[in-house]
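Per-residue structure
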Amino acid sequence: MAVCTCPPRFFTSTQPGPRPRLAGRVDATAPFHGLSSLILRFPPNFVRQLSTKARRNCSNIGVAQIVAASWSNNNSNSGIPAAPSATAVDAAATAAIPVDPAKLSAGGDEVVFENDVQLEALPDLKEASFLSSDGSLAIHAGERLGRGIVTDAITTPVVNTSAYFFKKTADLIDFKEKRATSFEYGRYGNPTTVVVEEKISALEGAESTMILASGMCASTVLLMALVPAGGHIVTTTDCYRKTRIFIETFLPKMGITATIIDPADMKALESALNEHKVSLFFTESPTNPFLRCVDIKLVSELCHKKGALVCIDGTFATPLNQKALALGADLVVHSATKYIGGHNDVLAGCISGSLKLVSEIRTLHHILGGALNTNAAYLIIRGMKTLHLRVQQQNSTASRMSKILEAHPKVARVYYPGLPSHPEHQLAKRQMTGFGGVVSFEIDGDLMTTIKFVDALRIPYIAPSFGGCESIVDQPAIMSYWDLSQSERITYGIKDNLVRFSFGVEDFEDLKADILQALETI
């Protein structure tokens, strides 16, 4: 297993975990105060001696040096020598040896910096305090705020490689014995995927994030990593069906049992915590498809008193509408396929939380696989740059349409946390800043009437996802529960007339007109 597959975080001045190797005449045993304006070479196996022009030409295709960035507010007491001149800055990072000025050569526009650390004069970012919004962080975190790839391209290069080489066996031994930091094998990490992880960590306020191949990959690896054999978990009645199947069908094979409670039933949670040695409380908030909300702060307080961890799947909320970690949760999971990717063109999942917990999950992930492809990582980076714009539009459209639907005579019931009629409306107002782009509602009619409504819609696609630019609609009874009988579906609250509508970023008036005309057909 590779050590430290993501670079040090950029938004805190002190970081746990192994320290990168620093070149220069520095006492390696001295306390680590954070290094201002340093880019640390990561890994030590990308050795380039390129002219400035050549480096620029190559950077966009990922043939750039791989580095880890560690920043702090002040380097006055760090004991680190001043950064070299701009001429040296343009040079490539190379061998892992102390800085020796005699080995710093320059000639014309070709400059070779033959040392372990490339020092580059970067602005003092004061922990990104100049960025006041999540929207700006979604654009710049992991990139303008410090990127693990030396490049002057605006966009992050896609590093397509399955493995990373070591120049000599001594370097490999240093890495294995944790005296050096590097990538090793593609399944353990990639500099392109690290940028995604840094962006999500910035939005969630997390110490660490790991990106995986899908949302279900994230959920299942997390459950297997954190719940011991014979352990017990608590989850909720309303949840994504595949998650429920895993909890009810696969976890028992490891002797893991579960208590399933209503999202609002705190008495049932307290009983489960008193009767069982609960390892983990795992749920969505809002839930799928009824958009129920869990009191994350209260749940976290109750669980922590009994030594249980709390994980919230915040996919329906997005990191912009809800900060589960700030409310007390230990971990937050997202299907990045949905809002985070946002373009219906990529599968991914992510887990954010403390470095300790995420590292524990990452260890199992490295064994099981499920690594995200770097091209998919690039699509997520691209998608996140418009996350705040998309979510603002989707929040607004869903909120306005939920009121119109609730007032319509052909709609029996609407499920949306932003409506006063929602059972957790007041809770949602306390712990969310927006209510999301999905509205579930029941048509006043049977299965066939609902099918007629869905088929009359012209804008949304009939498909099993949500959160993208394009609007999507489905009947859960057919899309997710068609293998069950009607009576079995009812046990999960899934009626034949239930519709889940994911609003995209189309014009509100167009969507409104389309829904109203479809309602007129029934």
Q: What stands out?
A: The chain has two domains: 134-385, 387-521. The longest strand covers residues 278-284. The first helix runs from residue 52 to 59. Residues 134-385 form a domain with the Aspartate Aminotransferase; domain 2 fold (CATH 3.40.640.10).
